[in-house]
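ARCHIVE CARD
CATEGORY: sequence design from structure
SOURCE FIELD: tokenized fold
FIELD CONTENT:
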């Protein structure tokens, strides 16, 4: 995801004001709202990835137990 931090928000603010599209106060509100949206989307994506990783570990755990690799007789295989 492309970075949209304070520097980018300030550039966006300056552009909106220079084009007369919004007042300085309005464009500042929009820029900060976009930063908040970006943070929320980034958090959502991270949560989705962590859910996928959990599911993969559950899948591996299932096969470890299903194949009997979790039994104690493998502990003495040295």
């Amino acid at each position: 995801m492309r970075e949209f931090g304070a520097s980018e928000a300030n550039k966006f603010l300056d552009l909106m004001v220079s084009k007369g599209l919004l007042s300085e106060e309005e464009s500042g509100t929009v820029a900060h709202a976009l930063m908040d949206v970006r943070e929320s989307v980034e958090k959502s994506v991270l949560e989705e990835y962590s859910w996928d990783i959990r599911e993969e570990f559950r899948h591996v755990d299932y096969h470890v137990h299903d194949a009997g690799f979790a039994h104690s007789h493998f502990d003495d295989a040295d």
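CARD ANNOTATION: Helices lie at 6-18, 24-66. The CA atoms of residues 10 and 31 lie 8 Å apart.
SHELF: design records, drawer C
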